[in-house]
Design goal:
Layout (H helix, E strand, L loop, with lengths): L1 H11 L8 H6 L7 H7 L1 E10 L2 H9 E11 L4 E10 L2 E12 L4 E6 L2 E9 L5 E6 L8 E6 L6 H13 L8 E2 L8 H17 L1
The structure holds 2-acetamido-2-deoxy-beta-D-glucopyranose (NAG) (5 copies).
Pfam family, one: Lipocalin
InterPro entries: A1A_glycop, Calycin, Lipocln_cytosolic_FA-bd_dom
Function: Functions as transport protein in the blood stream.
C-alpha cells in the first residue's frame, strides 16, 4: 500500500507549473564564467525549439536542420558563432558575435537592428543547453534546445520538456529539426579544408 501511494505521488511530480519552485530552479540562469565559456566551446546541433514570439516562431519553422560552432573570446566577453542552417533545402552560413553578459547569465546577438537576449540554461548532467527567451513579457516566451549530437536521448529531451511545461507551451508546439535534411555538410567540409591549409601555410 505504502509503495503504491508513493508511486502515485511520484507520478504527480511531472506536473510542473511556472510558479513552482521546481520551475524557478530549472529556469534560473547561472552567471557565466570562463569555465562556462570553455564548456560551450565546440560543435553543437540545434535540436528544436518553441517560441510564442511571432518573429522567432517563424524563423524556427523555416529551419530544417542546423549546427554551429562556438569559439569563446573570454577577454572580450564574446563568443564567435559560426552557424550552418538549412533553410528551404539550402545551406545558409553565418558567422557572428554573441555577447556574453556574465553576471546575469545572458547571451545576446544583434540581428534585424536590435539586440536579442536569451538566458543560458546549461544541463547539469549532459552536454546539452537551452536558450530561454523572455523578451517583452510572457507573450514572447520561448526556448531552444541544443546538444553535442544530432540526436538526443529520452533523458536529455526530458530536461527540455520540463522547461517547456514551465513556460506554458504544449509539447505539440515544439518544432524539431531533422538532421537528414542537412544541406550544409559540403560547405562545412570545405571550410575545414581551408582552415587546415591556413594553419599549414602559417
Ligand atoms: C507558432 O506558430 C504556429 C502557427 O502560427 C502556432 O500554431 C504555434 O502555436 C506557435 N507556437 C508557439 C509556441 O506559440
Ligand atoms: C577569464 O579569461 C580572461 C582571458 O583569458 C582573463 O583575462 C580573465 O582574467 C579570466 N577571468 C577569470 C575570472 O578567471
Ligand atoms: C545571415 O547574415 C546576413 C547578413 O548579415 C543576414 O542578412 C541574414 O539574415 C542572416 N541569416 C540568418 C539565417 O541568420
Ligand atoms: C544583463 O546585464 C547587462 C549588463 O550588465 C544589461 O545591459 C542587460 O540588460 C542585462 N540583461 C538582462 C536580461 O537582465
Ligand atoms: C511590448 O509589449 C507591449 C504590449 O504587451 C507592446 O505595446 C510593445 O510594443 C512591445 N514592445 C516591443 C518593443 O515590441
Amino acid at each position: 500500500m505504502a509503495l503504491l501511494w508513493a508511486l502515485a505521488v511520484l507520478s504527480l511530480l511531472p506536473l510542473l507549473d511556472a510558479q513552482s519552485p521546481e520551475c524557478a530552479n530549472l529556469m534560473t540562469a547561472a552567471p557565466i564564467s570562463n569555465a562556462t565559456m570553455d564548456w560551450l566551446s565546440g560543435k553543437w546541433f540545434y535540436i528544436g525549439s518553441a517560441f510564442r514570439n511571432a518573429e522567432y516562431n517563424e524563423s524556427a519553422r523555416a529551419i530544417q536542420a542546423a549546427f554551429f560552432y562556438f569559439e569563446p573570446r573570454h577577454a572580450e566577453d564574446k563568443c564567435m558563432a559560426r552557424e550552418y542552417q538549412t533553410i528551404a533545402d539550402k545551406c545558409v552560413y553565418n558567422c557572428s558575435y554573441i555577447n556574453v553578459y556574465r553576471q546575469n547569465g545572458t547571451l545576446s546577438k544583434f540581428e534585424t537592428d536590435r539586440e536579442h537576449f536569451a538566458d543560458l540554461l546549461l544541463s547539469n548532467h549532459f552536454r546539452t543547453f537551452m536558450l530561454a527567451a523572455s523578451w517583452n513579457g510572457t507573450k514572447n516566451v520561448g526556448l531552444s534546445f541544443s546538444a553535442d549530437k544530432p540526436e538526443v536521448t529520452q533523458e536529455q529531451k526530458k530536461e527540455f520538456l520540463d522547461v517547456i511545461k514551465c513556460i506554458g507551451i504544449q509539447e505539440s508546439e515544439i518544432i524539431y529539426t531533422d538532421e537528414k535534411k542537412d544541406a550544409c555538410g559540403p560547405l562545412q567540409k570545405q571550410h575545414e579544408e581551408e582552415r587546415k591549409k591556413e594553419t599549414e601555410g602559417s
